[in-house]
Design a protein that fits this description.
By secondary structure, the chain is of the alpha+beta class. The chain folds into two domains: 43 residues; 172 residues, Lipocalin (Beta Barrel), CATH 2.40.128.110. Helices cover 21% and strands 45% of the residues. The chain has two helices and nine strands; from the N terminus they run αββββαβββββ. A hairpin with a 3-residue loop joins β7 and β8. The longest helix has 39 residues. The termini are far apart. Keywords: Signal.
């Protein structure tokens, strides 16, 4: 009877040891899988390239409603960065210095430019900077991207969408885009038919065109 009990106890002990040895590799395997999953969240070539304010520029254009009396000029970026992941543009933010507004001849102190800086237009003393913050980028083809961003002017933020052509190397990114906005959405109401009646030929178009040329470097 004693020998039989010993045999049963030995059998139970053997089964327990066998079960324990089978479970241990499974724990290690699960741990390895968890580590691999965590690492996968951090893989990829992610870089931030800083805006070169000397090589970046925005060309602006506005006109009367009938297309006459067109005005154009330049404005410059103060700082910003573009985010690149796996060789593609995926995000970024740029800041525009509204005090750098120029006319088409690069004049900064004249009737036109001073008017653009006053409350009729961009109220630059109160709102010296505007920003463009990219929220989403979708590929159109290898060179062109569809960009969705938040544009802030005069402290008002609205979503905008535009296409950009990008040239990306290990050291730089060049991005060119054309953005057309309805200025009244940012409270730029001067001679807009939406707010003023009987302006006749003095009515100004609500559209402002921006030709954006950005260079960012590592």
């Amino acid at each position: 009877m004693t020998n039989q009990k010993l045999s049963i106890c030995s059998l139970i002990l053997f089964i327990a040891i066998l079960a324990s040895s089978c479970r241990e590799p499974q724990k290690k395997e699960n741990k390895n899988v968890a580590q691999a999953s965590t690492l996968s969240l951090h893989t990829g070539d992610e870089r931030y390239l800083m805006i070169d304010s000397k090589e970046s520029v925005i060309k602006w254009k506005g006109s009367s409603l009938n297309g006459l009396n067109a005005q154009a000029g330049y404005i410059y970026l103060s700082k910003g960065e573009l985010r690149i992941e796996n060789g593609q543009l995926v995000g970024g933010t740029v800041e525009v210095d509204m005090n750098t507004i120029e006319d088409k001849n690069h004049g900064r102190d004249n009737k036109l430019v001073n008017h653009l800086k006053d409350p009729d237009f961009f109220e630059v003393k109160r709102f010296p900077f505007s920003t463009i913050s990219i929220t989403r980028v979708n590929s159109v083809n290898s060179d062109h991207k569809q960009v969705t961003a938040n544009l802030t002017i005069k402290g008002i933020t609205k979503p905008v969408a535009f296409q950009t052509k990008t040239e990306i190397t290990d050291e730089t990114i060049k991005a060119n885009a054309k953005l057309v906005i309805d200025r009244t959405k940012w409270d730029v109401r001067y001679k807009s038919a939406k707010f003023y009646a009987n302006l006749a030929n003095q009515t100004m178009s609500d559209s402002i065109e921006f030709d954006i040329q950005i260079v960012a470097k590592k």
